[in-house]
C-alpha cells in the first residue's frame, strides 16, 4: 500500500497547518517584542507613590512625593511602594495577556505567557 495515498491527501493540509503554526509563532515573537516596549503606570496613596512598569515586567520608574516621606512612619511608605509596584506588575501582566491573546485568539499556550 502506498502510504501517501493511505492518508487521503493529508499532505497538503499538513503543510497548510505547519505554515499557519509558523506564522502564529512569528506573530507571537513580534507581539512579544512590541509588548516589551509598552508601559503601564500605577500609583498608590493618591499619587504619593507612582511607578512605571514595562511589558517585560521590569520596574522602570519609581516616584515618591516628598510629603510621603515621614521618618516616623516608614511602614506606610513601604506599604504604598509595595501596593504601587504590585498594581504595576498586575497591569503589565494584563497587557501581556491582552496582546498575546490578539495573536492566539485567546488560546493560552503554556510557557509563553
Give an account of the 3D structure.
This protein has helices spanning 3-6, 10-37, 74-104, and strands spanning 39-44, 49-54, 59-64. With 113 residues, the chain is an alpha+beta fold. It has a domain at 40-105: 2-Layer Sandwich (Ybab, Chain: A). It has a 3-stranded antiparallel sheet. Helix 2 (10-37) runs antiparallel to helix 3 (74-104). The longest helix is centred in the last third of the chain and has 31 residues, at 74-104. The radius of gyration is 23 Å and the shape is rod-shaped.
Q: TL;DR?
A:
The protein is an alpha+beta fold. The chain has helices at residues 3-6, 10-37, 74-104, and strands at 39-44, 49-54, 59-64. It contains 3 helices and 3 strands; from the N terminus they run H-H-E-E-E-H.
SSE layout and pairing:
Blueprint: H1 3-6, H2 10-37, E1 39-44, E2 49-54, E3 59-64, H3 74-104
Antiparallel strand pairs: 1-2, 2-3
Strand element count: 3
Number of helices: 3
Straight-line N-to-C gap = 44 Å
CATH class of the domain at 40-105: Alpha Beta
- Mind summarizing the main beta sheet? 3 strands, antiparallel
Helix content: 55-70%
Uncertain runs are: none
Shape: rod-shaped
Could you tell me the mean pLDDT? 86
Oligomeric status: single chain
According to CATH, the homologous superfamily of the domain at 40-105 is Nucleoid-associated protein YbaB-like domain
Amino acid at each position: 500500500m502506498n502510504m501517501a495515498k493511505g492518508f487521503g491527501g493529508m499532505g497538503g493540509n499538513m503543510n497548510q497547518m505547519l505554515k499557519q503554526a509558523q506564522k502564529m509563532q512569528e506573530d507571537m515573537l513580534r507581539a512579544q517584542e512590541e509588548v516589551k516596549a509598552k508601559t503601564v503606570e500605577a500609583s498608590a496613596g493618591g499619587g504619593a507613590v507612582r511607578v512605571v512598569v514595562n511589558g517585560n515586567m521590569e520596574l522602570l520608574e519609581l516616584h515618591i512625593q516628598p510629603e510621603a516621606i515621614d521618618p516616623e512612619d516608614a511602614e506606610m511608605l513601604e506599604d504604598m511602594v509595595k501596593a504601587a509596584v504590585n498594581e504595576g506588575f498586575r497591569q503589565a501582566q494584563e497587557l501581556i495577556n491582552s496582546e498575546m491573546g490578539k495573536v492566539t485568539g485567546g488560546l493560552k499556550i503554556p510557557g509563553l505567557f
